Amino acid sequence: MQPQSELTIPTSQHDEPPDETYQGPQPEATEIPPNPANPRGIIQFLTIIGQIEGHILLPPTNKATKYEHVIPQLVACAENPEIDGLLILLNTMGGDVEAGLAIAELIAHLGKPTVSLVLGGGHSIGVPLAVSATYSFIAPTATMTIHPIRINGTVVGAPQTYDYFSKTQDRVLDFVTAHSKITPARLNALMMDTQHLAQDVGSLLIGQDAVKEGLIDKIGGLHDAMEKLYSLIEERPREKCRCSEN
Fold it and tell me: 207 with 160: CB under 8 angstroms?
């Protein structure tokens, strides 16, 4: 018994030529097409909330921002060529001075456009964090407390202790005045004011007051902060991704 040959269907000479625009099988309707990159730039968000935790652990009931978590995020943001700008959202009561200054220094020297937005409050060491960005905003109802350096626990009553407090205070003053429009004399006057805070020395600035004093650049909200960051990104030429050079 001879094997059957394959069945062939003759094509008509009048068949239309294949469509040259045919691109092969199309993806199923359930597949999600890849999202193109934002043409205005890729923004990374950083939230600094609660209390800035330093070398000593805070109680688990405290809302805290841990510097060992934030610092790697900032380094990754600076290293990633796909990220064009950083938006910092602040609602902090302050906290550890050295941890706060470490984070502020990284933001100030990130090498990319940065914008900060004070929501709720940016108190104590939150002031250097707010002014560390390229441009700063504060919500109309947000507050900022400026007061001298303080410490909890046992204090040695010696001249060296006073010198330590004075030098630490100068570190904060120098950073804030270098990254804002307030003068050192005015900042020191607000810090040593005895008329505003009932149980402490210092001043409380609400929204527009912080702008008038030169600490914050402008009153605004989330939309204003994002639009400003996009404009800063547009002014700065975008770096080429290393993978595109291959």
Answer: no
**Over residues 200-208, mean pLDDT:** 93
β-bridge pairing 203-206 and 114-122:
unpaired
- Strand 143-146 and strand 203-206: the pairing is antiparallel
Closest CA to 104 of 68, 84, 133: 133
Asked whether residue 139 is domain-assigned, the answer is yes
The answer as to whether 7 is a domain residue is: no
Domain at 137, CATH number: 3.90.226.10
Residue 9 resides in a domain: no
Q: How far, in Å, CA of 188 to CA of 146, rounded?
A: 9
What are the structure tokens assigned to 136, written together?
């700063």
Q: What is the pLDDT of residues 110-138, one digit of tens each?
A: 999 999 999 999 999 999 999 999 999 99
Q: Which domain holds residue 67?
A: 43-54+61-236
Q: Which active-site residues does the annotation give? A: 124, 147
34-57 confidence digits (pLDDT tens): 446 778 899 999 999 999 999 888
Give the count of domains, the chain: 1
Axis crossing angle, helix 97-108 with helix 159-178, rounded to the nearest 10: 30
**Is the Cβ–Cβ distance between 221 and 117 less than 8 Å?**
yes
